[in-house]
Amino acid sequence: MSGRDRTITPCEVHDLIADGHIIVIYQDYVLKLDSWLEKHPGGTLAILHMVGKDATDEIDAYHRPPTLKTMGAFRIGRKPPGLWPNSTPPIRGGVYTKRDPLPSVTISSADDDVEVAADEVSDSESSSVNDSASVVSEKSMLTSYTSDEDSGEKPRPGLKVIWKTADDASKTKVFNGDKAAYTEWAMEQEVEKALRDYPSVDPKVQVDIQKKYRALHQRIYDEGLYNCPYLAYGKELARYSLLFSAFLVALRSEWYMTSACFLGLFWHQIMFTAHDAGHRAITGNFEIDSLIGMFIADFCCGLSIGWWKSSHNVHHLITNHPQHDPDIQNTPLFATCPSFFKSLHSSYYNFTFVWDKACEILVPYQKYTYYPVMGIARFNLYLLSWLHVISSRSSGLGNSKAWWIRPTEIAFMSCYWYIFGYLLLWCTLPTWTIRVAFVLVSHIITMPLHVQITLSHWGMSTSELGESESFAQRQLRTTMDVDCPAWLDFIHGGLQFQSVHHLFPRAPRHNLRKIQKYVMEFCEETGVPYTLLGFVDGNKHVISRLHEVGEQVGHLVNCQKYMASTGESGLH
């Protein structure tokens, strides 16, 4: 048997990772991706988050069949028969140290149809499966927060939390201003709720969901729903041209604020196609889709498609994880879960988001600041775009197919600022008042796009349930869809089908409504909840979540203030 066909055990993979190698499981093969890591057009983090894991579903979801055929070049052996015991990637805190081989261990399920074999499983690997499958004995849900100051009695600093257990009994716990203890408790409650609401993360349950997802994935292929409906883009182009023409006509007529509105609408609509290009959902060709994305995002809108792809790929793979998903790392402005109450180090930004005084002041009011901040969010994207193109993350694309992306992005973004900043704002608009108003109006008009992006995630689960949870269940647990009539799809740009999109990220957005019915059938068959809310109810859901987290912070701050001023715990 050749070296590329020999069986490589989990213990051997553990030792390879301990030596610094990048090992990922795909189908029945063990892949060593050391040489490809820095060349990966999707960024290094997309690979690093899959180290030590069976990433078959993630790889299939993000790569076209011709690309999948090249995976064999990185194969160093086969995995043992059965379910691979996923271990935590080093970037997420997994610890790997070389050790002597362990005795053979078999992990099996009660279902005879699912054989789970793992020869020489290391202690940490077997525990990751067992821990993720365990269920906290007392499943409960947080229902209300009060403080002793609210009772009308002598003010005391205790944060009183009332919740109901599985048997509908009420329980109360009081925290005396101990933020760390409260944070850990609140995070446990989030996990318990997710374990109660979603199918068990026991391997035998998850492997069944995995099989059904793969069958659905093949069905999408067979029915041609990965094929781009180019006629739909003809309609899109007509709409973009109409909006841009209206902007020019109003500008020439000196209807400056009307012109700003049409420019904002043009930006809002055309970025949906940039999103498609970023996922290679238009032509499927790397160079062509990259050029389309750069022309729209960088040249027409001043935003780096490279930055967007870098962060968006990670967001898709590790959705709603407080430490790793850059899309929910927004302190001190917003905190979407109690995990942010302790300082978190972002693996994406390589930066520690410190929970400080600014957070304690701003987060309690986040439900009020949500829409105003979304209105000016585009300015932050300009900053992030330029920081990306001058960073090592952009320059580090060693792939020969991607060397030209960074200089092209810089050129296109420079052209945008020359046209918009100099020719339009400086040379065309007559006064500083009109210039400032034009910038604000045109940028605030794009607010629904930013609301749409956050709407499908900020109100959903942020808990980590262990490495045995399937790709499909995690995506459905952390994402929701927004219901709307078909004739309004162009306003949402396909982003209202976020759950469907996260399951099939390369599927053209014009096909997502067709795929939605299959996803609903999949969820009914597997028991994985499918969250679908109307636009108004979805906004209420997010605001309610922001209010809940903000209220927790407010009560904790009041407790700490009381203790600081009196030196007493106030608990009797």
UniProtKB/TrEMBL annotation:
The keyword Oxidoreductase applies. SMART domains: Cyt-b5 (SM01117). GO terms for molecular function: metal ion binding; oxidoreductase activity, acting on paired donors, with oxidation of a pair of donors resulting in the reduction of molecular oxygen to two molecules of water. Pathway: Sphingolipid metabolism; Lipid metabolism; sphingolipid metabolism. It is an enzyme of class 1 (oxidoreductase). Residues 118-157 are annotated as: Disordered. It is found in: Membrane. Keywords: Heme, Iron, Lipid metabolism, Membrane, Metal-binding, Oxidoreductase, Sphingolipid metabolism, Transmembrane, Transmembrane helix. GO terms for cellular component: membrane. Its EC number is 1.14.19.18. The chain crosses the membrane at residues 368-389, 410-426. Residues 124-138 have a biased composition (Low complexity). The keyword Lipid metabolism applies. Belongs to the fatty acid desaturase type 1 family. This is Delta 8-(E)-sphingolipid desaturase.
